[in-house]
Amino acid sequence: MLAENDTTSICPKADSLTIVGPYHNMNLSARFPNIRTLTVLTIETLDLHKFRRLRHLITDNMELLPHLTPRIHTLTLINKNGIHLSSTIYSYVHHLIISKFFVNDPNTITAIQRYFPNLHSLDIQFVSNPTIFRDSLDILFDARQWPDFKLLRTNWVDEDFYHYHLIKIWLSDNTELKSRSDDFYAHCDGQSLTVWL
After folding, report:
1. Distance of alpha carbon 31 from the chain centroid
2. Which of 2, 7, 88, 95 matches a 20 to 30 Å C-alpha distance to 141?
3. What percent of the chain has pLDDT over 70?
4. Quick count: other Cβ atoms within 10 Å of Cβ 115?
């Protein structure tokens, strides 16, 4: 942690940084030249282009999204008020984690596919509605939309299904995975679901 009056220290060994308050005139990118993971929990905007080694952005500030750089391949959004994406396509983001937000409409998944067309992994939560859950899984597992998609982590919603050791069969019977020719692995413990394609 830096003191408020410290405007000159350089921390070349730091690879992660969390910003929770005002930071103007601190020249953070020069003072932390090797930051790979940046957490921004403030409403101020930040010039992300100056962080040359930045690969993972964690933020609750949706205003930062239009300023993402092609170097950022992992994005964690913390937002309980919904995902409000600009019209920008984030083709360089391969890993998306959305926390404190529950998908309550399959159209949210369609929007994520549109704005993040090259996702390899997604960590997301759903409201407790089996229909929304199944419809969203169908969209997620449609190989034509996301050919590079490989990993889904989510909560388990279907309360009528208790045979978690048979989850692979359930997914094959109830989602678009039935149309995929490649094998997949799935794990469900009754609270969370992980699918590797």
Report:
1. 27
2. 88
3. 92
4. 19
Q: What is the pTM of this model?
A: 0.89
- Measured distance CA(147)–CA(186) in Å, rounded: 18
**DSSP string computed for 159-190:** TT---GGGHHHHHHHHSGGGG--S--EEEE-S
Structure tokens at 3: 């003191």
* Tens-place pLDDT, residues 161-195: 667 778 888 899 888 998 888 889 999 888 899 99
Give dist(CA 31, CA 44) in Å, integer. 18
Helix H segments across the chain?
A: 28-31, 106-115, 130-140, 167-174
Alpha-carbon torsion 194, 129, 79, 117, what sign? positive
Q: With H, G, I as helix, E, B as strand and everything else as coil, classify residue 65.
A: helix
Query: pLDDT of 7-46, one tens digit each?
Result: 667 889 999 999 987 777 678 888 899 999 999 998 888 8
What ranges in 55-129 are assigned the alpha helix state H?
106-115
Q: Which residues, other chains included, contact 4 with Cβ-Cβ below 8 Å and sequence gap of 6+?
A: none
Rounded CA separation 139/105 (Å) = 11
pLDDT over threshold 80, residue 160? no
Length reported for the chain: 197
Q: How far is CA 90 from CA 26, 66, 76, 113, 157, in A?
A: 28, 9, 13, 10, 29
